[in-house]
Amino acid sequence: MRSGGCPAGSSRLQRLDPFALPLAFAANDAAADGRVRHIELFHERLVIRRSVAGMHMALNMPLSAFAGVAIRLDAGENGELPTVAVVLEHKDPGLALPLFVSTEADDAFAEWQSWSKVLGVPQLVADDEGGWREPFARIGGVRIERVRPRRRRHSSLKRRRPSMALRRKGGKLTPNAAVYHGEREIIARN
Fold this sequence. Notes:
Strand content: 25-35%
Shape: elongated
Radius of gyration: 27 Å
Mean pLDDT: 77
Strand order of the largest sheet: 2-9-8-7-10-11
């Protein structure tokens, strides 16, 4: 497995590659001994290894136990730069995992979409009550949007394309049509 990290000279604080699963990396954990936990991330599950008060534990959870991939904006304190984070959110805030943290917001949106697609969990944004919600209406895995008009009618390329197929009507079977049945096939099969 690969370890997460940043390329040398990058201004990113943390970047894990969603297309290089499985991944093994370390994350901060205020409750754990040594303030660190070790994470193994797979396509369908996640293993968190940490030690609390000398007791070693491993949490093996399916990705379906997580609410989704959220994007967080954290204001910098005491002269620090503000950061953008893409986080795998859980109902228990102690189990939330940072996947991408940067002081530059350019790539955060693309990372947010990539992680959501690779892990198969919904995208989340913060709502007014302090919780998380999906930014787009969905039914199951299908995003719901307003109906869009057909491309041919409103396109600047409309005049370049043949529209004969749009004007043709489908054929109808009439009662007088000849129907052949009970005859031998002409095609030879082995």
